[in-house]
Amino acid sequence: MKLKIRRYRWSDLDTILTLHQICLAEVGLAPGDGVYYDDDFPRIQELYLACGGDFLVGEVDSRVMAMGGLRPIDTETAEVCRLRVHPAHQRRGYGSAMLLALERRAVELGFHNVRGDTTLNQGAALLLYQRHGWREISRQQVGGLTVVYGEKRLTPAAMLER
Fold first, then answer.
1. Rounded to whole angstroms, how far apart are CA atoms 72 and 105?
2. Nearest Cα residue to 22 out of 11, 30, 14
3. CB 149 within 8 A of CB 136
4. Are strands 77-85 and 113-119 parallel, antiparallel or unpaired?
């Protein structure tokens, strides 16, 4: 089934918060673990949309199964955050579709780089970023977790052609 990607709406809030929690639990993580939190969800308009970023959701049969946000770091770089695909819908290309949509949107918004992080617990996410040309820039121990930080230089012409 095809993933339909659209911009976040306020009515999506409960659904994406639940999706976030399900996806973290699937890999043994939880909000409040020192790495992951969920206090930005009620403030998506302010923290993502109103400051030059974006937040996208992916639907299958009108049900939200994926999401991801772009949050400006500075005028050149945006952070990819909250990239999630419901566990029952993984391995169908939805993560790639969301990541490409976020990268394309970053170019449209004028960013030249994207950054993000994940943990070693999230092997599928690490592989996804690697497959899409991200490079690891550092690692850090946070509590009992190893956080892997990555980045990608965006090439506007290539991104907008996809």
1. 12
2. 30
3. yes
4. parallel
103: containing domain: 4-161
DSSP assignment letter at 46: I
Cα 146 from Cα 131, distance rounded (Å):
20
Lookup result for tokens 């090439």: 155
The phi and psi torsions of 10 (rounded to 5 degrees) equal -55, -35
pLDDT digits (tens, 9 = 90+) for 89-147: 989 999 999 999 999 999 999 999 999 999 888 888 999 999 999 999 999 998 888 99
CA gap 143, 151 in Å, rounded = 23
CA distances from 50 to 45, 71, 134, 144, 151 (A): 6, 10, 27, 34, 23
- The distance from CA 83 to its chain's CA centroid, rounded to whole angstroms, is 2
Q: For position 62, which CATH number holds?
A: 3.40.630.30
Global pTM? 0.91
Question: What is the total count of domains within the chain?
Answer: 1
Q: Give the β-pairing of 4-7 and 63-72.
A: unpaired
